[in-house]
Structure prediction request, 295 residues.
Amino acid sequence: MNLLELQKKLIASARKNPPSEQVPYAFEKRIMARLSARPALDKWGMWAGALWRAAVPCVTVMLLLSAWSFFVPNIKPAPSDLSQEIENTVLAAVEQEQGSDTIW
Amino acid sequence: MEPSEAELIAAVLKGDAASFEPLVQKYSPRVFGTARRYARRESEVEDIVQEVWLKAFQKLGSFRGEAPFEHWLMRLAVRTCYDFLRGHQRNRETAFSELSDLEGDWLERFVTQPESAAENAEAARQLVERVLGQLSPAARMVITLLEIEDRSVKEIAQLTGWSVPLVKVRAFRARAEMRRIVAKIAKDKYL
Prediction:
């Protein structure tokens, strides 16, 4: 049996017999009924839903961080003098600049 | 004067859903013709067409009007059919059921006198359906579009969303797959 010929014949048969394009009675009415039965898209509702869903993980993360900061001991020694610390921080940039000037 | 397609689409996008009905009425025959190429049962065909129209309504905002509405809709239809084939992959005939008498006779006639085996015979139609029903979803899609509907590789790429090289590769594999199935039919019948 010539298989290639058989394959060609089957393809030719499929070409010669295209499927029917008949549409069932009142099909468009059915589609329109389905479309009207679908609930309208509520944008505000979607936003509200998304925000509510996001609230739970945000609160969880916040609680975890709070617990962590509460229970983990602070390893940095407390500053002896707060005013001195602030002054050092504020003047850090100026000191750095002066340092670079002396190099040049 | 009846509104044009563009006017109907614009009206639907503005919220007038009723303007969608003339579009459904006009293009349903083509969508049904496409769906019947991939689904056998009429209930499945109706489900596919319904899904195509629901998707079309939902995604109408993405239709930019650069190409005709029909092209956009057919892309949607072909992709929905492909999804259907993939979803029903397990249902395809993996094991050969015996050929019907009609198919057996037609095959017999083809062996003895190939010219006398008519292409438009019911048996040939059944046999084609049997072969196509055993192809993988991608192979069935490619064979249908390329060999039966006689579309170009570029057209198939646009319809399916596959790249041109992918269509070529799948066409090569699909032909080989079809050859294997036809050979198996012949072997089962004559060995």
